[in-house]
Amino acid sequence: MALLENKVAFVSGGGSGIGRAVAEAYAQEGAKVVLSDINVEHGEETVKIIKDSGARPFL
């Protein structure tokens, strides 16, 4: 079982940098991740990266 299984994480600034890294790490540990970013394109890119890695889907 993953460390964050059955948990939900909200990451602001998840489109790049530390926010993206945190969102990816939470997803890899089993959390469902909700992220926000002022740059919609960067946020969508993070979503694609996480989904392509096989992590759990977003809410």
List keywords for this structure.
2 helices, alpha+beta, 59 residues
Provide an overview of this structure:
- By secondary structure, the protein is α+β, with helices and mostly antiparallel strands.
- It has one domain (8-52).
- The protein is built from 2 helices and 2 strands, in the order E-H-E-H.
- The chain has helices spanning 17-28, 40-52, and strands at residues 8-12, 32-36.
- Strands 1-2 form a two-stranded parallel ribbon.
- Strand 1 (8-12), helix 1 (17-28) and strand 2 (32-36) form a beta-alpha-beta unit.
- The two termini are 20 Å apart.
- The model has no long low-confidence stretch (mean pLDDT 91).
Shape: globular
Number of strands: 2
Distance between the termini: 20 Å
Strand content: 15-25%
Which regions have little confidence, pLDDT < 50, spanning 5+ residues? none
Outline the biggest β-sheet. Answer: 2 strands, parallel
Please render the helix and strand layout as text.
Layout lengths: L7 E5 L4 H12 L3 E5 L3 H13 L7
Parallel strand pairs: 1-2
Short description:
This protein is α+β, with helices and mostly antiparallel strands and 59 residues long. It has 2 helices and 2 strands, in the order βαβα.
